[in-house]
Design goal:
Layout lengths: L6 E4 L17 E6 L4 E3 L5 E4 L11 E9 L9 E9 L9 E2 L3 E7 L7 E8 L9 E8 L5 E6 L4 E6 L10 E10 L13 E11 L6 E2 L3 E7 L7 E4 L2 E2 L8 E5 L9 E3 L5 E4 L10 E10 L6 E11 L7 E2 L4 E5 L7 E8 L11 E4 L9 E5 L4 E6 L11 E9 L7 E13 L5 E3 L13 H28 L15 E2 L17 H4 L33 H15 L9 E2 L38 H7 L10
Length: 622
Amino acid sequence: MSPVGTSIMQVTATDADDPTYGSSAHVVYSILQGQPYFSVEPRTGIIRTALTNMDREARSYYEVVIQAKDMAGQMGGLAGTTTVNITLSDVNDNPPRFSQKLYQMSVPESAPVGSSVGRVLAKDLDEGINAEIRYTIVDGDGIDVFNISTDHASQAGIITIKKPLNFEKKKSYTLKVEGANTYLELRFLSLGPFQDTATVHISVEDVDEPPVFDSSFYFVEVSEEVEIGTIIQSILARDPDVANDSIRYSIDRSSDPERYFYIDIISGALMTARPLDRESISWHNITILAMEMNNPSQIGSAAVTVKVFDVNDNPPEFSQFYEAYMCENVKAGQLVQSLSAIDDDDPHGGQHFSYSLSPEAASNPNFTLKDNQDNTAWILTRRSGFRQQEQHTYYLPVVISDNGLPPLSSTSTVTVRVCSCDIDGDIMSCTAEPYTLPVSLSRGALIAILACIFISLVMILLILSMRRHKKQPCIIDEDENFHENIVRYDDEGGGEEDTEAFDIAAMWNPREVQLLKTRQDMLPEIESLSKHVPQTCAVDYNVHSYVLAKLYEADQDPCAPPYDSLQTYLYEGNGSVAESLSSLQSITTDSDQSYDYLTEWGPRFKKLADMYGVSKDSGSLW
């Protein structure tokens, strides 16, 4: 694009002849090859352009042959040639252009953010910096969902995902992409515009996605006294796909190895399966899994953190075993022992303990207790003049109470030993003098005493052995093959009107069963079946909670049988509004019921028809 006459370079030729002798050394230049694109000045050897609008994109390389001839170029002069290689440099005189105006692309909805969707390319005939292109999304409904960047190696535009895709919300996007040169030359702006646009249509493909929870994290606070089977949180997940498959819930057992919790497989109701104890585990971090029913490989998860609230269920106790030592010459009001207590509970307002002597020891003449109102207490002497020979050990029962609701207390014993001390108050001995037998005790008496002790031990061992044989073993003999345990009572119930032998309310609400209403005249063969289990108040999960409670009870009972247990009653009660629901005592005489229809049931029931049906013989049997 250089104008005509633009200087390119200068060539110079030398001649060894004497320049003062005629024109032997007078050299002139001419062009032998390279016309009409270039020219050379005959006297100076300067090579110049001879044409306008030379286009590098059409031809970028030229070989120009220059001749130098002495004798001023006349006949008989000598000549020499040289070759000049000329390459045209590029200028930004070509705008970028898309090879196609519409691009069709597709991407699965599960593609992660940052992944590539496809490429677009705007071609520029220039090279180097003049061919560099910057791509941008200038319009379209996916301007916030997708991004585009330039691959500097190929100068192509790479479309990537900026936000997660969802086929169920939007199935396709349309983008308007622009490609423009990053470097422009003002003298060539008239050849522009140096930019181009294309339309990109992106289709989102549907994939089977795992269930999605309403929340990826749940925080639950529950009291440690919550009953087994109580619903503490409702977990809800859904299938994000169009099919909207059914969801089944479960707990990742690696997050709850002790099985403190249970989740309903259909409703997602999270409930307790074991008693909670804040002092043992105050935080539970469990993982809930949601699985598609028709595609078990699609599993979603959510984290549930359960914080166990504290209740005042632990009484305070001494922080250590207290055994105090005091001298015989101790004075009244002297400190014997300082007391402190601990409590596993953690109330909101902090611990506050109160100390007192038990009622039976409150009026003792030897010691008193002072509550310091700072969770500590002192044991003080009431009098002086203790004598080790009279009593060398005192036991003080101390009652410790906390400030919980309801307040709990415990009684611990402080042991005080009377010691003999020296003048400086240093303890010399705290043991009483041993009791010695009288010297007059004969050897025969000692033998008689030892014989009585031996006989007593033998009798005790016999009694214990007899009691052991009378006990029912918890483990069933392997030779016995029991499939059912029948708990049988040999008396007839009174029906629904009998509220003493059987309470129908217990079947509707087992929580209201009172321990005082259990049968006292006969004990069931399996003790675990008659135990009372507290139940939850939830109406919809009454039976479910009852099963969870019984399951926990069976797990904790080492004597519970590993098979099904059946509890039956021998007779059916009377007075039911629905009348009889079984065949027991359903008729009073044989004439109340006709069995003629048995003859119509075929030969398989012929024996029953002969036994209960009307005989064809009208004569008397007697």
